[in-house]
Amino acid sequence: MAADTPAPRADAPPSRPRPHTRRQPWILTYHSVTDPGDDPYGITVSPDRLDEQLSWLRGRRLRGVGVSELLRAGAGRRGLVGLTFDDGYADFLDEALPVLRRHGFRATVFVLPGRPGGVNEWDPLGPRKPLLTHEDVRRVAAAGMEVGSHGLCHQDLTALTDEELRRETRHSRELIGDLTGSLPEGFCYPYGYVDRRVADAARTAGYGYACALAPGPLLSRFALPRTHISQADRGVRLWAKDLRHGLRQVTSPAAGHRSAGRARAGGPR
Ligand SMILES: [Zn+2]
């Protein structure tokens, strides 16, 4: 035992693990919030289940915030959890936002300014889900939510040329800035696919952070790990995911470690 570690007192209660207090912030990944009846990719959570999941967080004295707010809190982020909604589905405004407001939570919505009012054509199995229009993106920002970029059109950025990559990162940032009146701080890699070149492009485009899913050795402020949340996630499963996130911090190399490898996460988009 280290000299500066006090010996446990015989009458002290056993210490309980509190994974969300660990070094890397805990960030949850949502996509669509609506009826999950037809959901081959497991990206849809019902409004009732979202309500239940946010109640679970509150029961653990965690408050949901956007990722910028989470990162700004620094050491004070102990009671915070990042909430993210990828792809900019139109159901965010009607289904997710009322639930977030009921809990007093905020979130980051990663939108696709190259597909205003479009659909999720990148998912071959469907179902087709409408995306936010430009006016909707303004409403999301006006509601106090953080708007971040998911690129222009939801492409695998690791497969693009340097010029295409620059457009997906830099031009999407400019378009969102024009819509909301402020340049976005956050970027999110489509499919969670990121390699060193892509992470460097996000940084060069002016973002302050970027979200991945399971970035492995690329783990850094520009490849933040996140936990996918599904309709099946309730008490014990959420607890297990929180614990797994905490353990991942123990097994991951130091932030900023350089690697040429690409982080490919299975599952969600
Ligand atoms: Zn996506």
From TrEMBL:
Residues 79-269 form the NodB homology domain. CDD domains: CE4_NodB_like_5s_6s. Residues 1-23, 250-269 are annotated as: Disordered. GO terms for biological process: carbohydrate metabolic process. Its main location: secreted. One of its GO terms (molecular function) is hydrolase activity, acting on carbon-nitrogen (but not peptide) bonds. Gene3D superfamilies: Glycoside hydrolase/deacetylase. It is found in: Secreted. Keywords: Signal. GO terms for cellular component: extracellular region. Residues 1-13, 252-269 have a biased composition (Low complexity). This is Polysaccharide deacetylase. It comes from Streptomyces violaceoruber.
